[in-house]
Amino acid sequence: MSKRKFWSIVLLAFVTTLMLACAVFFTACGNNQTPDAGQNTEQGGGNPDDGDEPGTNPGTDPNDDKDIAVTAVSLDKTSLTLEVGESYTLVVTVSPSNATDKSITWSSTNSSIASVSGGKVTAKSDGTTTITAEAHNGKTATCTVTVNEPAPEIIEVTSVSLNRTSLTLEIGESETLTVTVLPSNATDKTISWTSSAQSVATVADGNITAIGSGTATITATTSNGKTATCTVTVNDPYADFSFNLSGNGYILAGYSGTDTEVTVPAEYKGKAVTAIGSRAFYDCSFITKIILPDSLKEIGDVAFGYCTSLQTVEIPACTRILNSVFLGCTSLREVTLPDGVVTIGSNLFTNCNSLQKVTILSGSVLRNTFADCANLKEIVIGENVTSVAQGAFEDCTSLQYLTLPRVDENTSFNEYYFDLESQTYKLDGTGAENLYPAETRSYTVNVGGVNRVFALPVTGTDWYYSKSSMTVGGVTYQYSGKPITVTSWESMYEATVSVSWRRPETWTAEFYIPQDSSLTKLTVTDQLISIYDEVFDSCGCEIDIVQKFPVESVSVIGETELYLDEFSLDDYNLRVKHTDGWTEDLPLAEHLTEADKQELQQSGAHSLTVSYGGQSCEFKVNLNLRTFDDAVLEDKSFGYDGKPKYLQVIGIPEDTEILWDNNGQTEIGEYTVTATLKNPYYEDKTLTAHLYIRQAQYNITYVLGIEGAENANPASYTFGEELTLSSPTSDAWEFLGWYTDADFTEKVTAISADEYGDKTFYAKWRSIFEYANGEITGFTEYGWSQYDGGKLTSISIPSEISGQKIISVGDSAFYNCSRLTNVIIPDSVTSIGDSAFYYCRGLTNIKIPDNVSNIGSHAFYECDRLISITIGNGVESIGDNAFSRCNSLTSVHIVDLSAWCKISFGNATANPLYLANNLYLNGELVKDLVVSNGVDSIGDYAFYSYDALTSITIPNGMTSIGEDAFYSCGGLTSVTILDSVTSIASGAFNYCNELTSVYITDLSAWCKISFVSNDANPLCYAHNLYLNGVLVTDLVIPDSVTSIGEYAFYYCSGLTSVTIPDSVTSIGDYAFSGCSSLTSVTIPDSVTSIGDYAFSGCRGLTSVTIPNSVTSIGASAFYNCYKLVEVYNQSALSLIIGSTGNGYVAYYAKNVYTQVDGESWITDTEDGYRFFYDGNEKVGYLIGYYGTDMTLILPVSFTAYDGMEVKEYEIYQYAFYRNKHLTSVTIPDSVMTIGNHAFSGCSGLTSVTIGNNVTDIGERAFDECIGLTSVYISDLLSWCKITFGDFYANPLRFAQNFYLDGELVTDLVIPIGVTSIGDYAFSSYDGLISVTISNGVTNIGEQAFRECNSLTNVTISDSVMSIGSSAFYYCKSLMNVKIGNSVESIGDSAFNGCNELTKVTIPDSVTSIGGSAFDGCSGLTSVIIPDSVTSIGGRAFSYCSGLRQIHFNAVSVEDLSSDSNVFFNAGSNDNGIAVVFGDSVQSIPVNLFNVSNSSYCPNITSITIGSNVKNIGERAFMYCSGLTSIIIPDSVTSIGSSAFFGCSGLTSVTIGNGVTSIGNRAFYECSGLTSVTIPDSVTSIGWATFGDCNSLTSVIFENPNGWWYSSSSTATSGTSIASDYLADLSTAATYLTSTYYNYYWKRG
User: Fold this and answer.
1) Which candidate, 265, 247, 254, 294, places its Cα nearest to that of 171?
2) Closest CA to 927 of 936, 917, 939
C-alpha cells in the first residue's frame, strides 16, 4: 500500500467519525430548535432505515468518489385538509434513492395558518397555505393545506315541551306559547310551528291567534323531528249571536243563547255592530236585561218583540228605532230614549202592560207608540222631541205624571198630543189645563222640570165661589176655577186651606195632595163641610179640623119592622144635623142604655127614647117570630130487618129541638108518629106522619117472548132498594123495553124503592135485520150503519123472521161491520151474497152451513182477523176474492174432500187456502192427500198455495186437474198420478219448488196426457219420474204410443237416454225440454215432426240423428243444447252449422254428417271421458264426463277418432255442468280454455287445480260451486293473464283458499312481467290480506279484487295508469291504499263499499274519477280532488257518511247532470262537511253538490271559495240545508241558477264585489236568510232569485239607482223601481221576496 493511500484512508475515517458525532448531537437537540422563517434544513420525512448501508458515505460508492444529484422530490399528498389543532406528517420521496445529498428544507407560505417541521404539518388557524419540501439543489414538491375551524360538536335535541298542553281562547284572542328544548345546549334549537286547522287557530313563532270556533292542534317541531303539541279550543264569545255583514259593519240578526242578562258587543270580527236586525231577539222570553252598545245606528222592527221577562234595557243614541221594537214586553217598567234618536217607530211599546215611566229626550213620537200601556203613570218629554203624534198614548188610562219642556205662553207645541181616557188633548201653548177632562180626576204635571200643578177638578155646573184660596209658605193662592201653580214645594211644610162654598144642590169637593210633597201639616178652617179620607191617603201629613157647628136635630136611621133573628144594633145610626146644615151619622148602640139593649133581644113591639147634643127622638121597632113553613115529616116504608126504623123531619133550621112520639119501631106494621118543633126565633109546631115496616123480598117474573134471548135481571127485588131493569140481549132482535102487561101499554124501566109485591114484566122486541123475500139485506137503524162500524159484536141470523124463512144473506148485508166478532148463519141459508161480510175486521171465525151452495165475490174481503172458517159440503162456488186480505186466516175445516175438490173458485183469493196454512178434514190436518174414488176432477185453485201438503195421490177415475190446482204448494214433495188422467191445466203445479218425485204406473197413458203448459207437468219441478216405483233414467217409449204429447217429459233431468219406437210419428212441443242429463236419443224414421223446443236445454246431448222421415223441426227444438256437436242428417232438411234454422239443431254443431255411415269425431274413453276432435279446425274438446269418480285428474291428452294423439284441448261449455258427485278436479297444462258453464252447478266440488296454460275461463264456468274451498296454481304470472268471462267464471268466487305452489296466498305481490291484471283475477278471494302491485303493471282490470273482504292494504306502483271499474269493489276491510303517481283514471265503483278506508290520496295524474268510485266509503274523512281531474262520475262519493273535508282543486270539471248525485248523502254524521275550493279552481261545476232527492243532500256546513273562481255553476249547492254562511269572493262574476236553492239553514251570505249576475232562483227557499247586501257590481238578478226567503226582511242595495224589472229574461227595458224604495231595507226585501220576486231584475 502506498503512503499516499494510507493517509487518505486515515483522513476519511477521521472525517466520518466527526460527521457521525455531529449527527448525534443535532439529533438530540433538533426538537428544541425552531428554524427561522419556517425553514428546516433537517433531512427527514423518510424511513430511518432508508439510505445507504452503515459505514458508507451517503450517495458515494466506497469505490467511487463521484456525487449523485437529486433529480426529483415528491410528497405523498398534494393537498391536505385539516382542522385547527390537527397535524399530519408528510412523507417525502427523493429521487434517485441513491442521491448523494437527500437533505430537505421545509417551508410554509403562511405559518400562522399551518407550520411545518420535519414534514410534520400543524394546523393553526382557518385559511390556506402551501407547504414546500426543497432539496439542496432546488428541487421542490408542494402540498396545499386547507385549515378549517373545528366543526362544533353537534348536540342533538332529545325532547321539546310547551308550557301549555291545552289552551282555550275566544275568537280574536291570542297567546304566545313558551317552548323548552332539551338539552339546553343543543346545537340546533330551531322550532317550526304548524296548526292542524288554520281556520280555527294560526300560529307564528309560538304566537297563537284564535280565528274561528273549533279545535286545532298546535305542533312545535324541532329540526330532528321532535314534537310537542298543544290542543287549542277556540270558543266564539258571540256564538249565541248571528251576524250578517252589511257594508262596513255587522247586523245582529239573531240570538240563540239562554242568558237572562245579555250584552250586545260593540264590534264583531274587527267591525262595528251597527244594527239590531228585525226580530233579532223575538220571543226571547227568558231575557230580563239587555245592554246595547253605542255603536248602534238602528234597531229593527220587532227586535225585542215579546221578550216578556225583559225589565231593563239601556238604549244608546241610535238614529233609527223602527216599528214595534218592544212589542209585548210585558215586564218592561222604565225606558229612556236618549238624545240623538231621530226616528221612533210606531207601536214601539205597544202592549207593554207593566211600563210605568218613559223618558223621551229627542225624536218624533209616532202614532200608537205607547198604545195600550195600561199602567203607564209618568211621561217625560225632552226639549229635542219634535212631535208627538195623535194617538201616541192611546188607552194609557193610568197616566198621572207628565213632564213637558218649558210650557208657557211663548211656547208653541202644534204637534203634541196626549191621549187620556179615550179623549185627545192638544198642547197648543195656552197652558197645561187643557190636559184635564171635565170630570173628577187628578193629574200632576211637571213643566220645565221644576213646577208642579195640582187641580180641583169637579163634576157638574153652577159653582159659586165666595172665597177660594190656599196659603203655602206665607203665600196665598186664589182659586179661579183653574189649577193652582205652586212654585216651590221645597219651602212648603205647612198649608192652611179656608173655603166657603155654596151651590143650589148637594155637592162634593176633593183635595189631592201629591204623594211626594214635603207637606207635614194641613189645617182646615172655616166652614169646610166634609173631608173624605181618601183625599189625604197618600200625603202622610197631620190634619187639624178646627171647627164644627151645634146640633139642630137627631133621628134614628134603620128598619122598623123585621124578624127577631135579623135584628142587629150595628145596622142602626143616629143621624145628627148641625145648624150649619152639616149632617153626620153616629152608631146608635153608643147612645142606648144597657136596659134598652136587653129589651131589644125579645120579640114584640118596642118604643125607646134616644138623646144627643141636647136633642132627643123616639126609636120604634117591631121584632117578629118566624114560622116552620118548610118543615116536613113524610110517610116512609122500610123493609123488615129486625132493627128500629125512624122518620126524620127535614126543612128546619139548626138548633131546633124535636119532641118525638111513637118513632123508632121494629116490627112489621103501620105506625103514626108525631114531632113537636121548638126554636126561640120560631113559633112552636107539631107534625104527623106514618111509618110502615114491610116484608123484605118479592119475586119478579120475566116473559121474554123469543128464543135465545139472554136476561141478566135478578129474579127478586128488595123492598126499600131501587132496582133498575137492564136490557136483555139477542143477536137478531132489538129490545124495545119492559112492560107491565102483555099488550105492551105501560112501560117500566125500574122498580122504585117504595114499591112492594111480586112483579111480572113483558119484553118487547123487533128484528134488527132488514129483509125481503127471505133475504137479509141489512140492518135496521138500531143494528148499525155500515159507515160507523156498527154497534153489535155478535149476532145469530134467525132462520125466519115474522114467519118468513131466511134463505140468503144479501149483497153487502154486513158491509163494514168492523165490530162484529161472531156470526151464526142458520141452516136455512143457501147463499151468501157479494161483499156480504166485506171489511168485517173483527170477525174471528165463521161456519158455512151445508145448505149454502154459493159464496159471492168479496164475501169475506179483508176480514183481517178471521182465523178459522168451516166450509159446508153443499158449497159449489166461491166468488172472486171472497177471502182476499184475510191475512190472519190459518185454518180451513171441511168434512168431505170430494165436495171440496168440486168447488168452483172464482180466482186464487176465492180459496181460503190462499192464506190459511192448514186444511182439516174431519179434524185431521191434511198433509198426504189421497183423493177419494168417484172424484173425476180437481177444480181450479182447489189447493192453491196450501203449504202443508206433502204428497198427492190421484186415483183412477179422475180425468182432469184444474188450473192452478196445486199452485205454490211449497211443502209438496211427491205426486202419484194414475192412468185415467187425460188433462192437467195451466199452473196446476206451478211453484211447487220442493217437488222431487212423480209416480206413474202406465207410461203410455202418461204420454197421452194433455199438459196445457210447462207448469201443468209436475216434472217441471220434480225432475224425477218413477214408473212402478223405479226411477226412469233410460226411457223406452212403449210401442202403443203414436205421439209424445207437449211437455210430456218437461225438465225430467233424471233421464239419460230416450228410445222412441217406430209407432211414434210426432214429438210434441217441449216434450223433452230441460232434460239436462239426456246424453242420447234415438228418433225413429217414423217421426215426421219435432215440436217447438222439443229438446231445448238438453245440455248433455252431444249427438243426434235426424231420420229421413222428418219433414219439420219446430222453433228452438234444440235450443241451448250446448254440447250437440254432431248431427247426422238423413232428412231432406238443410242443416247448416251455426244456423238457427230447423230448431237450432246444427247451431252448436262442429260437424254435420249427411251420410248414414259418417265417421263420428266423438271419442269415449274407458275412464268415462267424452272427447271431440274437430277435424276441420283441428281442435280437441273435452265435452263431458260420464264416469263415477269423485276426484278427477283430467287427461293430459287423448286419442282422436283417427288415432292421432291430441296433446292440447279445451274443456267444452257445460262439460261438467251440475255434476254434483265431483269433489276435486285437476286441470293439466295441456288445457287452454275452460268453456262457459263448464263446472257450473258442481255443488260438491271442493278443490280445483288450474294448469299454467289456461288463458280463458268462460262465463259462469264455476257458478253455483258453493262447496268450493281451494284453488291451486303454480304460476302467478299465468294466472294474472287469464281472461275470465265474468264474475262467476273465477273459482275464487266461492273458494276461500288460494294456493301458489302449495303455499296459501295472503300477501300478494304481483310478479315482474305482469303488465295487466285481468278482469276478475282475484275477485271475491277472502283470504287475501295485502296486495303489492309491482312496476310494469299498467292496468288493473275490472273487478280484479272485487269483494276481497279480508284485504286491508294495497300498494299500487307508479307504472299503473288505470284502475278498472269495481276493481276493489266492497273490499270491506280495506284500510290503506297507495295509488301510484301515473294513474290517470279511477273506474266506476273502483272502491265502492270500502267502508274501512279512512284516507286516500288521489294523485295529480288522475283526470277521471268514475261513477260511484268511492260510494259507501263511510270511513273516509277527507278527500282532495286534484287540479288534473276533468270528469267526475255520478255518485262518485255518495254515502261517504264520515266525510268532513272536501278540498276541490280541479281547474275545470265537465258540468254534471242533475241526477249525478256525486256526493249523495255524504257527511251524514253530526260534524258535517267543510268544502274548500282551491285557488286553482276557475269554475264550480253545475250540480256539484245537488242530489235528486233533497233528503239525501250532503251535509255541507261550510264552504270556502278560492280567489280565482269566476263562476258558481247552476244547482252547485242545491238543498245543502246544513250550510249556514257563505262568502263569495270578488273573483266570482256569476252565480248560476238555483246555485243555493233550498239552503234553508243559510243565515249569512256575502256576495263579492265582482258578481254581475245572480241566476234564477239562486237563493230560492233560503228560509233562514234574514238580510243580504247586493253589491254595486250586480246588474242582473234572475227570476225568483230570493223567492220563498220568508225570513228575509233586510236587503241593502249598495246602488239602488237604475233598477227595473220585466217578465222577459231577454228584455232590454222594463218597469223601473224607485231608488227610494230600494234604499229602504225592509221595502227592498219585500220587493225581492214577494212583490216583484217573479220578475227578472236588471240595472242600467
Assistant:
1) 265
2) 917
Q: What angle do CA 518, 519, 521 make, to 5 degrees?
A: 150
Phi, psi of 1197 (to 5 degrees): -150, 175
Out of 424-428, 453-457, 1073-1077, 1410-1414, pick the least confident. Answer: 453-457
Cα(1423)–Cα(15) distance, integer angstroms = 97
CA distance 208 to 195: 9
Cis omega (within 30 of 0) for bond into 183: yes
180 vs 1588: CA distance, rounded Å: 58
Nearest in space to 1325 (alpha carbons), one of 1302, 1305, 1339, 1311: 1305
Angstrom CA distances, 459 to 417, 509, 534, stand at 24, 9, 17
Do 201 and 210 meet the contact criterion of CB atoms below 8 Å apart? yes
Q: Distances from the Cα of 743 to the Cαs of 739, 747, 763, in angstroms?
A: 8, 10, 10
Angle among Cα 810, 812, 817 to the nearest 5 degrees reads 120
Count of CB atoms within 10 A of residue 1574's CB?
24
The average pLDDT across 1253-1259 equals 95
Percent of the chain with pLDDT over 70: 85
Spatial CA neighbour of 326 closest among 343, 298, 308, 348: 348
User: If you average pLDDT over every residue of the chain, what do you get?
Assistant: 83
Longest dimension (CA), the chain: 211
Average pLDDT (1045-1055) is: 94
Cell numbers found for residue 403: 213632564
Question: In the predicted model, what is the mean pLDDT of residues 1325-1334?
Answer: 93
Placement of cell 397535524 in the chain? 87
Torsion of CA 871, 877, 882, 887, to 10 degrees: 40
| Neighbouring-strand partners of residue 230 | 218
- Short-list 979, 1042, 1031, 1036, CA closest to 1006: 979
* 1615 has a pLDDT exceeding 50: yes
| C-alpha to C-alpha distance for 634 and 727, rounded to whole angstroms | 34
DSSP state letter for 806: P
Q: What gap in Å lies between CA 409 and CA 1172, rounded to an integer? A: 133
Contacts with 1400 (C-beta within 8 Å, 6 or more apart), sequence order? 1377, 1379, 1391, 1414, 1417, 1420, 1423
Give the DSSP H or E segment for 12. helix 3-29
Residue whose grid cell is 246444427 = 1146
Cα angle, residue 950 at apex, residues 947 and 955 outer, rounded to 5°:
120
For the cut 60, the answer to whether the pLDDT of residue 481 exceeds it is no
Catalogue the E-assigned strands of 84-151. Answer: 87-89, 92-95, 104-108, 114-117, 120-123, 127-135, 140-148
CB 804 within 8 Å of CB 774: yes
Interatomic CA distance for residues 1363 and 1340, integer angstroms: 5
**DSSP H helix total and E strand total for the chain:** 8, 138
Give CA–CA dist 738/762, Å, rounded: 5
Rg (CA), the chain: 60
Query: What is the helix (H) or strand (E) element at residue 868, kind and residue range?
Result: strand 868-870
Q: Are strands 1162-1164 and 1169-1174 parallel, antiparallel or unpaired?
A: antiparallel
Banded model confidence at residue 426, pLDDT cuts 50, 70, 90: very low
pLDDT digits (tens, 9 = 90+) for 495-514: 444 333 333 333 333 333 44
CA distance 1291 to 1225: 12
Nearest CA among 320, 270, 264, 317 for reference residue 292: 264
Distance separating alpha carbons of residues 1290 and 1273, to the nearest angstrom: 13
Please identify which residue in the block is written with the cell numbers 146608635: 588
Rounded CA separation 1400/1434 (Å): 19
Beta pairing partners, 1222: none
1294: burial class by Cβ within 10 Å (0-12, 13-18, 19+)?
buried
Assess whether pLDDT exceeds 70 at residue 767: yes
- What phi and psi, each to the nearest 5 degrees, are found at residue 394? -60, 130
Res. 1175: pLDDT tops 60: yes
